[in-house]
Design a protein that fits this description.
Organism: Trichonephila clavata
Distance between the termini: 73 Å
Mean pLDDT: 85
Largest sheet: 8 strands, mixed
Order of helices and strands: EEEEHEEEEHEEHH
Radius of gyration: 30 Å
Strand content: 25-35%
Low-confidence stretches: none
Number of strands: 10
Protein name: DUF1758 domain-containing protein
Length: about 190
């Protein structure tokens, strides 16, 4: 089960399967209609098992989530059906030795149901950038050091994500003028300052 954002901004639980061998993510037309997603024109050919091919004419974009910390915006090619019901036959969970301390994404995974979404390789693992400032400084050093005319040159590790400060000269100037006027009106205040 995966949460998928509808056009109205609501999160809807849908049945999904992961296919790391698929180069595209797919969404059934029925699921896209339930979500009310805007369909975009798109032209692609999908090759499947045993060389079977079919054309896709539409795609949708939306965000998926595990309902917790993971969110990702993906493009889905629209297909009439992803696969038949999974599993093909219901089975009895009481006959299986399943761990009791695990919360399953789909508590009723033993009951056949329609697959709404196929998540392809685009959902894959994204390598997170190092958040350690020391690691970033070392990486910057390695990428910018050079030997020039008998001397080493290294670029400064500037922080690019810091916003520029506002120009407060006019504010400071107005405050200084106001304070000067107060000094003229109150000579004892002037003596306290100096």
């Amino acid at each position: 089960m995966v949460k998928v954002q509808s056009a109205a901004g609501l999160w809807v639980s849908m049945t999904a399967i992961l296919d790391s061998g698929s180069q595209q993510s797919l969404c059934s037309i029925q699921a896209a209609n339930v979500l009310g997603l805007k369909k975009q024109d798109f032209c692609a050919t999908i090759a499947g098992v045993s060389g079977s091919c079919f054309s896709v004419r539409k795609r949708v974009s939306t965000e998926i989530s595990n309902g917790d910390s993971f969110k990702r915006k993906l493009n889905f090619l629209l297909v009439p059906e992803i696969t038949g019901c999974v599993p093909t036959q219901p089975f009895d969970l009481t006959k299986m030795n399943l761990p009791q301390n695990i919360t399953y994404a789909d508590a009723e995974f033993n009951i056949p149901k329609r697959i709404d979404i196929l998540l392809g390789e685009a959902i894959g693992i994204k390598e997170e950038s190092s958040s350690n400032p020391n690691d970033q400084a070392v990486q910057h050093f390695k990428s910018s050091v050079r030997f020039n005319s008998g001397r080493y040159e290294v670029g400064f590790p500037w922080k690019r994500d810091k916003q520029e400060l506002n120009d407060n000269f006019s504010v400071a100037e107005n405050r200084a003028k106001s304070l000067a006027k107060r000094f003229i009106r109150d000579p004892t205040l002037f003596k306290k300052y100096f």
